[in-house]
Amino acid sequence: MKISDAKRVQREDGFNLVEIRKNPSKIEEYIAILYRHNGKSFMLAYENDTVLSSPDLEHIVLMLKDIGFKKAKIYF
Q1: How many domains does the chain have?
Q2: What would the DSSP string read from start to end of the chain?
Q3: Which of left, alpha, beta for 68 (phi over 0: left; psi -120 to 50: alpha)?
Q4: Which of 15, 18, 23, 48 is the most exposed place for a label (fewest CB within 10 A)?
Q5: Domain limits at 17?
Q6: For residues 26 and 16, is the Cβ–Cβ distance under 8 A?
Q7: Dihedral pair phi/psi, residue 69, rounded to 5°
Q8: How far apart, in whole angstroms, are the C-alpha atoms of residue 14 and residue 51?
Q9: Are 36 and 18 in contact (CB under 8 A)?
């Protein structure tokens, strides 16, 4: 899900949960997974549809805060 779409959804009815996990294809990086209330899950992506991944947890956390999240589960 693109960042702009995630901001819109968060404003409208929100997400049930957000998790920060290791990127399965590049384990030195982290990704964010967003869960809707209906059980669907989405990987957070940039506007060009590439998955937002970073070796820096702070980068992921700041992006999530910008979207409007106040908490997230982190898996190392």
Answers
A1: 1
A2: -BHHHHHHHHHHT--SEEEEEEETTEEEEEEEEEE-TTS-EEE-B-TTS-B-EES-HHHHHHHHHHHT----EE--
A3: left
A4: 48
A5: 3-74
A6: no
A7: -75, 145
A8: 20
A9: no
Phi, psi of 39 (to 5 degrees): 95, -10
Q: Which residues of the chain fall below pLDDT 50?
A: none
Amino acid symbol at 44:
L
Name residues whose C-beta falls within 8 Å of residue 66's C-beta, 6 or more positions apart in sequence.
3, 7
Structure confidence at residue 47 (pLDDT): 97
Give the model confidence (pLDDT) of 41-52 as tens digits. Answer: 999 999 999 999
